[in-house]
Every structure is written in structure tokens, then in C-alpha cells.
Amino acid sequence: MLIHVVKSKIHRVKVTEANLHYIGSLTVDQDLLDAAGMIENEKVQVVNINNGSRLETYLIPGERKSGVVCLNGAAARWVQPGDLVLIISYAMLPLEQAKSFRPTVVFPDSETNALITNNE
Fold first, then answer.
1. CATH 2.40.40.20 is held by the domain 2-94
2. How many DSSP H helices and E strands does the chain contain?
3. Does 110 participate in catalysis according to the annotation?
């Protein structure tokens, strides 16, 4: 049996842009992706702390040190620049491995989106 578990999370990051007319996806500063162990095209869940919405999309790496967090395409309807979001990725693990697995959680500065700490 395989169990879905949280693989990694970027906790309380500020949305910097919402681009309705882009093809789709979520652009995130490459430094944040690296710290969280997330990769280009990985499926993620975005949880908006400001309005409670949840959506699924995929990642596009943004420029390093830019602090960019931009929801693109239809996802842009669910956020406003300045909203705080959680970006969560999941993995499927065998039950016994899932019991002891510990996700990577990244805590960026909620104003600049610069990396503060993580639990690696």
C-alpha cells in the first residue's frame, strides 16, 4: 500500500504577481524551490491563507534571489498580490516508510520571500 505524504512545503510565502493571461502554472524563485527540494514541473497544491482557496498546478522556476511567487493562468483568479500562501508537494511512499518520513519545510521571510530557515 502506498500513502500520500507531504514531501515538502514552502510556508507562508507572499504572492508577488498574478498573471491571468499566461499559459498556466506557478512561478517560484529557484532558491526557494531548491531549499524545499521541489523541481520544475512538479505538481503542487497552493493554499491561500487570505481567502482559504486551494488549487493544484505545477512549478516553473523563477529567477534566483527575485522572491517571485506568481500564479499564472486561471490560478491567478484565486490570489491577489500580497496574499500569503502555502506551497505543498506530496509523495507516495510505502506505509512503513511513510510512518517515519519527515518533510522539508521552508520558512521564507513573509515580506521579501527570502529564505530564513528550513528543517533539512
1. yes
2. 2, 9
3. no
